[in-house]
Amino acid sequence: MPQTLDQLAAYEDREYTVQFSGEPARLRGAAVSSDLFPLLGLHAIVGRLFGVQDGIPGAHPVVLSERIWLERFGRRPDVIGQPLVIDGQAHTIVGVAPSELSFPALATNLWTLLSVPSGVGRDGTPRATIFRALGRLTGRATPRDVELAGTQIARRLGDSPVAIRAAFGAGGAVSIRARPLAEEMTADLRPAVYLLCACLGCVLLVSCANVGHLFTSRVIARRNVFAIKRALGAGDARLARETLIEGLRPLALSGALGLLVATCLTRVVPSTLGAEVRRLPGIAIDGSVIAFWMIVTVLVMVLVLLPTVIAVSRKSMSPQLPSGEHGAQAIGPPGRGRTTGPNGNGAGSVLAFGSRSRGEPAASTPG
Fold first, then answer.
1. Is residue 153 domain-resident?
2. What does the pLDDT look like over 74-111, one tens digit per residue?
3. Per the domain annotation, does 323 fall within a domain?
4. Closest C-alpha to 322, from 239, 216, 221
5. How far apart are CA 67 and CA 101, in angstroms?
6. Domain match, 160 and 276 both
7. I need a labelling partner for 176 at 20 to 30 A (CA). Which of 108, 141, 152, 156 fits?
């Protein structure tokens, strides 16, 4: 069976009672094995994090979060080496973790060393210790490969070990589950994010329908202009192209404005909600976000402008120059040649002036 993990570390969530200058405080923390911080590739702000030298019996080191270091010790660097009583046991402060470390929980304030007891008690009876594990994949291994390998090892042990019975029950199905760390840390927020994205998608579709209706109404209101352009020889392709160019400008400007607003929000929101929402400070506008923005912008342009272009291309929208109160009116008996009488219409005046100039070229004074 191929190896699927390079490193493996253990951890578990805990609640601690910590004595700060005689004042007890209840803090959320975690007990971790000595190889967890090297696995995560983190470095301390002050002092050091847990290492191989801490994995000895009787050692009681503690690593503080940057927030606790600021609130309780005023960011003093001389806290390294000072004692700190946790759950009645004296510990030694060895370092301060960086602010980006929020493992295994967002509000983790300190980390102590996890000591895994022996699998056999003092009286010789077997005992089990259940904790969570974090591993680093090897090469091209996937979480599914880890699940298969772990399940094979667990099933090979049979039902005799106490840990197998405690984890899966006597005679229960043995199955190991593994998933990426990012998915594990955002599991509680993922359903809400999906619901928010679905709501935003519905709002976007409604907005596209409304803006598309406005563009189409604007085109219909200008049907007289399109009728004149058709009469002067403009084809459907040219009219559609002109309408498309007119619509692309405000839509492209709106898309650029949306990207600018998103960039500003990624700088403002983490400073206000970064302590309550996991991984929010790590959100940034990168190449993948810009590519997604471009795709969505193009789709919005298509959804908004396609009905407008179709409306312009329909010749039935303006089959003839409309006549009305302020337009040129046709006069003359029906069935015979009809002339256009001027009644304030600019196009009719231009045609009448052109006809007179053509009929009496000598009447025009050069210069």
1. yes
2. 999 999 999 999 999 999 999 999 988 888 887 899 99
3. no
4. 221
5. 11
6. no
7. 108
